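Hi Y.,

Following your request, here is the sequence exactly as I used it, all 230 residues.
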Amino acid sequence: MRTILSQDQRNISHRMSYLLIAVVLLLIYILQEVEREIPILDFIFLAVILGTIYVAGTNLKWLVVGIMLSIPTLILSFVSDFDAWPPDRTTIAFIVAMTVFVGFATVAVIRQILMADRVTIHTISGAMVVFLLLGLFWALLYLLAEGLDATSFSLNIDVNKADYSSDLFAVLTYFSLITLTSTGYGDITPISDLTRSLSALEAIVGQMFLAVLIAWLVGKFLSQSMEQNE
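Below is the corresponding structure, written out as tokens. Let me know if you'd prefer a different format.
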């Protein structure tokens, strides 16, 4: 029997796909170091914020929290000097605000996935969003740690001195993603107690993501398939 989703379920599913596109574009921009003269990062991050609010909008309380977190994040993104390094207080506040918002976005997407009645391609998109947001969340934590303590990492790769903060963010995002997948190349090493603890925790979360959330989705899909065949 063919499963027909309600209009609300279709909307929730499509929201996940929209958010996935925005998050992928954001990570591509960060990792590939696209030209910095045009503030593309602000607009793509705005797309991620709007996508998160769009997903959270299915529940009034989550929508209000999303809007309340997004406002200071957007304001700080325009008033802070992200290119200056070491970061000043305003930039530190911006990094903290981004970290909190990305953490909220991750939880909001997980909530939507767990509430889904059916596993669809868009539910899988939501799981991909969670994985990428986890990588971005830890990248921001690493950036914050490096901003507070310049000896947090040992970098065996070249960082562009002329655009140090943006290049450093790209490097730490790369480090976060390979740590999340338990892949290590030895070109970046956490050396402070804080960054070693963060990287160990991220590796554990990456494995838990596969063992818990993905396994739950697979089990739900198999149960769904058995129901359809009956």
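The chain has seven helices and two strands.

Thanks again,
Q.
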